[in-house]
Amino acid sequence: MTLARQHPIQVVAHRGASEEAPEHTLAAYRKAIEDGADALECDVRLTADGHLVCVHDRRVNRTSNGRGAVSALELADLAALDFGSWKAREALRSRDEEPDWEFRPEDREQTSVLTLERLLELVADAGRRVELAVETKHPTRWAGQVEERLLHLLKRFGLDAPPDPAESPVRVMSFSARSLHRVRTAAPTLPTVYLTQFVSPRLRDGRLPAGVGIAGPSIRIVRSHPAYVERLKRAGHGVHVWTVNEPADVELCVGLGVDAIITNRPRAVLRQLGRR
Ligand code: G3P
Ligand code: CA
């Protein structure tokens, strides 16, 4: 079904085009860009030697052929791992149609660990505007180092101080209000997104932590409390919903007028929105 809307909802590729390609790899982000995603979502963690890498879990066990916590491994250790084969095996097991993404073991770069720096280069070379939503993971453990490194890197790419926050190609997301506070203190014009999995009584009236402009509720919250989205919008906040993969949920988000849909299936969502 094609859904008409006055202002296009932004389609954000969650961990890249992660339904088809292995999450957080160059392959997944290249595919998302090819598919037409407006923005890319990525989680960042610090390695033992201080590099920001795009990995969701605390440990690398699920998404690579290695073991151990990202924070205990150096970038060189991570670079020796394969972050793609698990997905190729999963695709072989579960697919009833030809996959759109093909695992090529000879192309190591597409499935090795991805640094945030490399992802920023990819976005800079995309040939069109592609936004980036960076999520800080486990920022408490590092007491500000994740944010510091992130802002340092964004500065190198000229992205840390957008003159108009509404036009910023980068935003920082977190479940941690403290992490977002650190970002706002050091980079006051960089937009921040407060992610929530549950609506706590404190947030029910649509208020967000001070200075945060965008709410990031889970699709579960949106399904069970659609009025919460109305409240957020009335309070003047942007609403970015994750992780929206089912057509009925896309329709719900469109109906509620959310600003961004964060999805593992950017191509399918763009098609549903009539944009492909
Ligand atoms: O985009 C927000 C979403 O990614 C938060 O959940 O666990 O997938 O990082 P998670
Ligand atoms: Ca995330």
UniProtKB/TrEMBL annotation:
UniProt xrefs under InterPro entries: GP_PDE_dom, PLC-like_Pdiesterase_TIM-brl
Designated name of the protein: Glycerophosphodiester phosphodiesterase
SUPFAM superfamilies: PLC-like phosphodiesterases
Family matches, as Pfam families: GDPD
Gene3D superfamilies given in the database record: Phosphatidylinositol (PI) phosphodiesterase (3.20.20.190)
Domain GP-PDE span(s) in chain numbering: 9-273
